[in-house]
């Protein structure tokens, strides 16, 4: 059975000018011949991703959402630069081919990269794809190891010394995400003030080992080998990557990690197959990261809580666009439920933590 991730028809209102795109690509990438066709990858809530076929060549185009105002949140040039720097030292990043700020092509900056073909896990394991409990654990271990591999790259040696500001990173994250939430809050959204106050009060010391962090590392942003689904062959969606505290990155990843024994409200917003038999628990993932990295983590609750809050802010920012009619994508309507549930989960974590 074919489990390769498939694109679909382009959503209404997110069409591209095919003639202009075709002309740009054939002028920019040597050897492209044949007729161009475009489809859209339907997942994701932020930058838009399209599959472009030109003859026998498959390319992927990334652009910001239509109607986007916040350029810094959808910086195509920054994402392209990260992929360029990583390609020689990190085999999982797609090969970036061309970047453009020419608004005559599609009215915004965008870039084109190679397509990494393989299996992408979404909410549930695809029908017919069998993973034993042993397989599930092995896949989880590989997921942790590939993230840690990113965290151990010498970012200065590959030309990214100026890519981020690791000093004061945690403080800026707490302050920045708190302000973003307040700016994006809608009348039907919870206030999160208790969560924001707790995060500000419990900030850990500066990391002594700043690293390249992906900031959205999870199952549906990795590509699995079609012939060996336990092997990770690609990591996608680098729009939020920067230089910062690797434990904050791990916390952001575990915000998505819903275990089979988590309460019903957490199950309600599960987006990934982290509940399958054999899947590692959050505690086991942290333990493996500690063992492999040598980074001590006296208490991970701060980072986990930050991850839950950050995920809520992202959901609320997208919901804000829907609430105010900036997008008509019906998928965004229910994000307010995720924002509400994530606050419940964060408050429950705060209640039980020993920090």
Report what the structure shows:
By secondary structure, the chain is of the alpha+beta class. It has 2 domains: 97 residues, Phosphorylase Kinase, domain 1 (2-Layer Sandwich); 220 residues, Alpha-Beta Complex (Aminoglycoside 3'-phosphotransferase, Chain: A, domain 2), CATH 3.90.1200.10. It has 11 helices and 9 strands. The chain has a 5-stranded antiparallel β-sheet with strand order 1-2-3-5-4, with helices on both faces.
Number of domains: 2
Distance N terminus to C terminus? 48 Å
User: Compute the gyration radius: what is it?
Assistant: 20 Å
CATH topology of the largest domain: the name is Aminoglycoside 3'-phosphotransferase, Chain: A, domain 2
What would you call the structural class? alpha+beta
CATH class of the largest domain: Alpha Beta
Query: What percent strand?
Result: 5-15%
Order of helices and strands: HEEEHEHEHHHEEEEHHHHH
Q: What share of the residues lie within helices?
A: 25-40%
User: Would you identify the CATH architecture of the largest domain?
Assistant: Alpha-Beta Complex
The major pleated sheet works out as:
5 strands, antiparallel
Categorize the overall geometry. globular
Strand order of the largest sheet: 1-2-3-5-4
- Low-pLDDT stretches are none
The count of helical stretches stands at 11
Averaged pLDDT: 93
So, the CATH homologous superfamily of the largest domain? Aminoglycoside phosphotransferase (APH), C-terminal lobe
Number of strands: 9
Secondary structure layout plus pairing:
Blueprint: H1 18-28, E1 36-40, E2 48-54, E3 57-63, H2 76-86, E4 96-100, H3 103-106, E5 110-114, H4 133-151, H5 169-184, H6 193-201, E6 211-213, E7 222-225, E8 228-235, E9 242-244, H7 246-254, H8 264-268, H9 282-293, H10 301-323, H11 335-352
Helix pairs in contact: 4-9, 5-10, 7-10, 10-11
């Amino acid at each position: 059975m074919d489990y390769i991730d498939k694109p679909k028809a382009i959503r209404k209102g997110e069409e591209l000018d095919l003639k202009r795109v075709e002309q740009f690509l054939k002028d920019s990438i040597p050897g492209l011949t044949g007729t161009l066709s475009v489809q859209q990858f339907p997942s994701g809530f932020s930058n838009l991703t399209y599959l472009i076929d030109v003859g026998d060549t498959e390319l992927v185009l990334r652009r910001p959402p239509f109607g986007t105002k916040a350029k810094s949140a959808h910086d195509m040039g920054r994402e392209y630069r990260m992929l360029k720097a990583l390609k020689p030292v990190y085999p999982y990043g797609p090969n970036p081919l061309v970047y453009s700020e020419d608004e005559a092509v599609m009215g915004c900056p965008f870039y084109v990269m190679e397509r990494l073909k393989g299996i992408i896990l979404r909410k549930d394991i695809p029908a017919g794809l069998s993973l034993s409990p042993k397989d599930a654990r092995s896949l989880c271990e590989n997921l942790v190891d590939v993230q840690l591999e990113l965290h151990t790259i010498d970012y200065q040696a590959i030309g990214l010394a100026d890519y981020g500001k690791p000093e004061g990173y945690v403080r800026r994250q707490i302050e920045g995400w708190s302000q973003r939430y307040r700016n994006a809050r809608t009348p039907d959204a919870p206030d999160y003030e208790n969560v924001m106050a707790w995060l500000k009060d419990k900030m850990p010391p500066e990391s002594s080992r700043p690293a390249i962090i992906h900031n959205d590392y999870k199952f549906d942003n990795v590509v699995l080998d079609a012939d060996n689904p336990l092997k990770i062959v690609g990591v996608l969606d680098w729009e939020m990557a920067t230089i910062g505290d690797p434990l904050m990155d791990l916390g952001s990843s575990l915000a998505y990690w819903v275990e089979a024994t988590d309460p019903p409200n957490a199950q309600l917003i599960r987006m990934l197959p982290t509940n399958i038999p054999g899947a590692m628990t959050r505690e086991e993932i942290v333990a493996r990261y500690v063992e492999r990295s040598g980074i001590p983590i006296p208490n991970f609750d701060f980072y986990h809580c930050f991850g839950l809050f950050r995920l809520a802010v992202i959901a609320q920012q997208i919901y804000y666009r829907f609430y105010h009619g900036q997008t008509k994508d019906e998928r965004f309507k229910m994000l307010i439920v995720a924002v509400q549930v994530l606050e419940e989960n964060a408050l429950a974590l705060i209640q039980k933590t020993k920090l």
